[in-house]
Amino acid sequence: MATPKPIGIIGSTGSIGESTLRVVDRHRDRLRVVALAAGRNVARLAEQAERYRPEAVAVADAKCVDELRARLRGKLATEILAGGEGIAAIAAWTGVATVVVAVVGFAGVRPTLAAITAGKNVALANKETLVAAGAVVMPLARKHGAAISPIDSEHSAIWQCLRAGRREEVRRLILTASGGPFRTRPLSTFGQITPDEALAHPTWSMGPRITIDSATMMNKGFEILEASWLFDVDPACVDVVIHPQSIVHSLVEFHDGSSVAQMGVPDMTLPIAYALFAPERVESAPDLHPFDLASSGPLEFMPPEAERYPALDLARRAGIVGGTAGAVLNAADEVAVAAFLDHRLPFTGIVSLVQAVLDEHDVVFDPGFDDIVSADRWARARAEQHLGMSRR
């Protein structure tokens, strides 16, 4: 019997982290959890540590480390780390072969870089890493021979569909999008959208920021940039189509006019399992029902309305510009979403704020990591300044 693949999970207490552990539970003979890291959910992290008995655990919020130590004291011999350096150490942990990066936002960049530098393969569920730092991440991965496997369902679908032909035969990539909760809502009422309404995603169960980004479709804009980096295509060759049922996860169109689509139930264990085992296909979770096309009902497809989803064109513009534009796009959006959830910004102000900050940015076109960090900090500060001016 083959030795189980040792994996680490950054963001183990979140939605993707928990789904990854469901895949581990299904394949305990083939996967072994060696390292875990979380933000500040100490209680859940301690439970996971007791169940999977990793060699090391880390909590991003250093204020929580004493509580984590107290919960695990006398129960298992696990090294306990804290802070950004602790998270990076988990990503580069010696016994790990593949690191699942499942944290949200710019926080995913440092552990991804740490894993790549240490020669680990990365199963990436953090789209912001490539949006903000693709110009640094992808060359580094090539240098160290590290594979980056996408966990986002759309990019996993593209990855699978690309097996149907050669890259030079590809005309365009087509990402599907549910359209979010406001696909049919009158545009005249968008200024009245509340955080509770925006957090009610019609298909997926996700964290707050991703759910709001889905409502504005900024997440799909991010996915355009992510696809561009992952598959080495121009952002102008990545399109989006609205597909409310979320059954077709994405498509690849080839030059001969044919298109190949990947379909399945909307369950994140599917792309997680593929990222961990590809090109082999394995059962993702014991409780996942097979996809039944005959009972799935009608499948709808429609183009996105530019007025309803201005984030798409804004993100594509940032991808075409390149350089540090993606870092600014992501950072300004992170601030804008937080302000909306805190009732400091209307729903319609999210994309407007991001555009204002992006318009003011002096792009660095061949950035290093320090340039990415500087652009991120500048964009956050500038977005907060805009928010402060709007409250006067």
List the helices and strands and how they pair.
Elements: E1 5-10, H1 15-26, E2 31-38, H2 42-52, E3 56-59, H3 65-72, E4 79-82, H4 83-91, E5 98-101, H5 109-117, E6 121-124, H6 127-144, E7 148-150, H7 153-161, E8 170-177, H8 195-198, H9 208-216, H10 218-231, E9 238-242, E10 248-254, E11 259-263, H11 269-277, H12 310-321, H13 325-341, H14 349-360, H15 369-390
Parallel strand pairs: 1-2, 1-5, 2-3, 3-4, 5-6, 6-7, 8-9
Antiparallel strand pairs: 8-10, 10-11
Helix pairs in contact: 2-3, 4-5, 5-6, 6-10, 6-13, 7-10, 9-13, 10-12, 13-14, 13-15, 14-15
Task: Output the keywords.
alpha/beta; four-stranded mixed beta sheet; 11 strands; 392 residues; 45% helix; seven-stranded parallel beta sheet; globular
Give an overview of the whole structure.
The strands form two sheets. A seven-stranded parallel beta sheet has the order 4-3-2-1-5-6-7, with helices on both faces. 45% of the residues lie in helices and 15% in strands. It has 15 helices and eleven strands. Helix 6 links the parallel strand 6 and strand 7 (148-150). The mean pLDDT is 93. It has 392 residues and is of the alpha/beta class. Helix 2 runs parallel beside helix 3 (65-72).
Summarize the structure.
This protein is α/β, with parallel strands linked by helices. The protein is 45% helix and 15% strand. Strand 3 (56-59), helix 3 and strand 4 form a beta-alpha-beta unit.
